[in-house]
Design goal:
The chain is mostly beta strands and 300 residues long. Among the domains are: 100 residues, no CATH class; 90 residues, no CATH class. The protein is built from 2 helices and 22 strands. A 4-stranded antiparallel sheet has the order 4-5-6-7, with no helix packed on it.
Amino acid sequence: MNYLFKSISYEIKKNPLGGGIAEIFIKEKNNNQKKFSFEIEISNPKHYHPIETHKCGVYAMRTFGYNYEKKAPLENYKRELWIYKYNGIGESLLSDSLKWSHENMLGDFRVDPAEKYIVLEKGYLGADDYALVIKNLETKEDTFVLPFKKIADEYPNLIGSFKLKEWTKDGRYFWGDIFVGANVLGFFRIDALNWKTDIFPAPENTVGGDVLNFDTGYTTVHSGYIYFGVYELVQEEKEERRKKGIGTELYIESLITKKRHFVDKTDEPLWFFKPKWISETKLEYYLPSGERKIYESGKF
C-alpha cells in the first residue's frame, strides 16, 4: 500500500474489556474515499498522546497482563511499543516487562519524522537515574541519554518532571519541557546532529496550556497568569483583579533571543486565550466573546 497517496486518520474509543481501541482509516488523498481500515489495541484511550502515524506505519503502546477491573498488574504484566503497517499487521518493537519501577520507560513516546529514533522517559522524578532516553529504533540501543541530575545540577530552579513535546518538521531538534503541576519551569531542545542539549528557563507565568512553536522557538505567555486549580480561589482572584482593573495580556516570546511581542489583551481577568500555532508565523487565539483571531508576525 503506497502511503504517499493516502490520507491517514484515526478514532479512539474505550475497549469494553479494558484499555482502548484505535480505528485507523486510510483514504485517498484526492477524493477522501475510504480504502481500508483496521483496529488496534492501545493501553489508555484517555492518554493525551495515544498513537503516532508515520510514513511506515502506526506506532502505539499496548499493555498486557493487567486487571483493568482491579486496576492492578498481573504476574505476566508488560507494556510494549508496537508498529502496525498500513495493511493492519503489527509487530512488537520494545518491551517494558518490569512492574511499576524506576526502569519503566513505555509510558509516553515520540518517533522522529524519519522513524530512526524514539524518545522515551525513563523512571520518575526522584529516582537516581531519572532520564530522557533516545533509542535507535533499528538497533534498540540507547543513542542519547539526558540524565535529569545533569539539568538539576546546572539549573537548581528547574526541578520538575520531563514532558515530551515534538520533533521539528525536519527532524533535527526534539523539544520538551520541565514542569510541576500546571506550571512550566523550563524547556529543553536536543540537536540530533550532535546531541547537544540547550536548556531554556521558561518565561514567567508560563503554564501547560501555553503553546511552543517548535520550528521558531516562540512560546505564548499569558502575562500575570496564575493557575490555582481550585474554582473558588480563581473566582476570588478574578474579582480582586476586576476591582483593580487588571485584565489579561497575551504575548509571544522567543526562548532563544528572549524577544517578546505583544499579541492582544482583554479586560477579563485570568483569561486563557486558547492559543494554537497554525503555521510558523500565525497564532490562533480566542477572545472572551468567542471571537477567533489570528496574529501574524511575518518571519521572525
